[in-house]
Amino acid sequence: MTERTRRIGMLRRMVPEGRSSRATAEGAPRPAEARGGRPRRRGAQPKVVALGGGMGLSASLAALRRITGDLTAVVTVADDGGSSGRLRDELGVLPPGDLRKALAALCGDDEWGQTWARVIQHRFQSKGDLHEHAVGNLLIVALWEQLGDHVQALDLVGKLLGAHGRVLPMSAVPLELQALVRGHDPERPEDVDTVRGQANVALTPGEVQSVHLVPNDPPAVPEAVAAVLDADWVVLGPGSWFSSVIPHLLVPELLDALMATKARKVLSLNLAPQPGETEGFSPQRHLEVLGRHAPKLALDVVLADEAAVPDRDSLTEAAERLGAAVELAPVARTDGTPRHDPELLAAAYDRIFRMHGRIGPWR
Fold first, then answer.
1. Are 58 and 289 in contact (CB under 8 A)?
2. What mean pLDDT, rounded, does the chain reach?
3. 47-to-69, 129, 170 alpha-carbon distances in Å
């Protein structure tokens, strides 16, 4: 028995009684329709865990908080740019920026929630050391230093904000994202170089071949693993594919939990390729890249905006290789920008949660 197999078994034993795995590390993904759903008591809301980082995760959270009160965000901690990078370098802390954005997205639409959302997102403008630091970043780091506990501090910030959900880091140690990139140097278009740092990976002019984390076997936050194991649905994406979405699959304990959980999994695709990181990517290529990084991970649903899918057949084939069905829905804003509309995205998630494997209404 391999160490990974033993770890999978241990994770399964952590799942509350009555739950079992639908996708294992030892078997290939099975079609979504062949995997049974789990009954929910009438009136219950789905337990949803959303994985990601940056503005993509914020869009997903702003939608999900509209349809469930049992929501947990698991956030990447590999950011090394801007205010987060400066705090990370100076204090040796986790980068707080993506955690802050997730908390802001979970703020309510009332005056209290929107006021606090603006406050924690506010950036100082000065000629001194505070320039471009976000208030929320400083608040989070201050509580980390005061309490000595990442999770407790984030829970306290969420309580202050009245956040509609919980925010957790995917790992308790700062991570460095590294990528193998072909053509990172335009003068050497065929050479493959190692590009270090999330900010550099996101902006590379070359073609990202693969990404990995340093350290390469980082520990997952136990509360994040427990949330995945106890979820009804896990939502992955949208967001920067190589720097926000895939990194969660590179944390072994988190990937093991994703394969051990009975939760159904939906992957939300971006509305357009990201300049630099995924320039020229088709929707199906996003799936192929994700599959290469986690070849034994099964999905249930791939959600995409109909207008962003020029070749439905190719996307369907790519999704089926991951065990998933494709759901097309209008989820983009109507202003022409490649941004998700929270109300439309909420409606799409709600329909998926109700149609795929549920028994009885959630609410």
1. no
2. 86
3. 8, 41, 18
